[in-house]
Write a structure and sequence with these properties.
Rossmann fold, 6-stranded mixed sheet, 2 domains
Length: 203
């Protein structure tokens, strides 16, 4: 069983409650992209109401663009039932076609939070290897960006934490030589302990 990374804003949802009751290990984290990360899969979950709303205000396209730029494997879950009368059915069909073809993002419609939790559990169980999502800058334009990419390869370290580490310790060498106490000051206790354990682990 893998750790399912959950966006902080999603952590009080019924989906998370269902996953917790099923015994899955969950890790809250402030995600800039997506709602759930399982292995190297990014999952965006939208209620049917939010899905239609994002079509109307067009914010869904920026979200899909960001996910496509950062993750090879991604999934859109639309949860709930119903139909928005103010949107022409052809517009919805066109959007679904665009999501699957242009953004190369599968989309699945599920009835409720119970079905969503069950589906996320299935994805979790299919992850056989220990894979860490790579959240990197789009292109390394300089050595600083390259250093950010290196840190983002470490489990639990996203772009925000990577920036904080470099701002605090000034170099990759200093980051890796930092004591656990120094790391806790920057990352918090749990993340710092995981970081220290990973870089000291024998393979």
């Amino acid at each position: 069983m893998k750790v399912i990374i959950v966006d902080n804003r999603e952590f009080r949802s019924k989906v998370v409650r269902e996953l917790f009751n099923k015994g899955f290990e969950l890790m809250p984290k402030q995600l800039s992209i997506g709602d759930y990360i399982i292995g190297d899969v990014c999952i965006e979950r939208k209620s049917i109401k939010d899905f239609y709303g994002s079509i109307i205000d067009k914010r869904i396209f920026e979200q899909l663009k960001s996910i496509k730029s950062n993750y090879e494997k991604k999934l859109l879950i639309v949860e709930g039932e119903g139909f928005e009368r103010n949107i022409h059915p052809n517009a919805i069909k066109g959007l679904i076609a665009s999501i699957t073809i242009d953004y190369k993002m599968p989309i699945i419609f599920l009835k409720d939070s119970i079905e969503t939790a069950e589906f996320l559990g299935i994805i979790d169980k299919r992850m056989q290897k220990k894979i860490t999502p790579i959240i990197a800058v789009k292109k390394a334009k300089n050595n600083y960006d390259s250093a950010i990419n290196v840190l983002c390869l470490i489990p639990g370290i996203g772009i925000k934490n990577a920036n904080n580490l470099l701002n605090e310790f000034k170099s990759l060498k200093n980051v890796f030589l930092a004591t656990e106490k120094e790391m806790i000051r920057v990352l918090g206790e749990k993340c710092a302990k995981n970081f220290t354990k990973f870089i000291n682990e024998d393979f």
